[in-house]
Amino acid sequence: MATLFCPKCGKDTDVFFDNVCKQCFTQNRTLIKCAQVLYTRICATCGSVFKRGKWSSGEDEEKTIMECVNGSLEHDPEAHDVKLDFTLKPMDYSRYKVHIEGSGKIKGAPIEVALDTEVRISRETCDTCSRIAGGYFEGIVQIRADKRIPTSEELGKCTQIAEDVASRSRVKGDRLSFIASILELDEGVDYYVGSMKLGKQICKAIIDVYGGKFLESPKLVGQKNGVDLYRITFALRLPEFVRGDIIIVGDKVIEVQNCGKHVTGIDLETGKRFMENFNDLIDVKKLSRKQDAVLAVLVADEERTIQVLDPETYETITIKRPEFLSAEAGNEVKIVKTAKGIFVVP
Ligand SMILES: [Zn+2]
Ligand SMILES: [Zn+2]
Question: Is the alpha carbon torsion for 59, 65, 70, 73 positive or negative?
Answer without folding.
Answer: positive
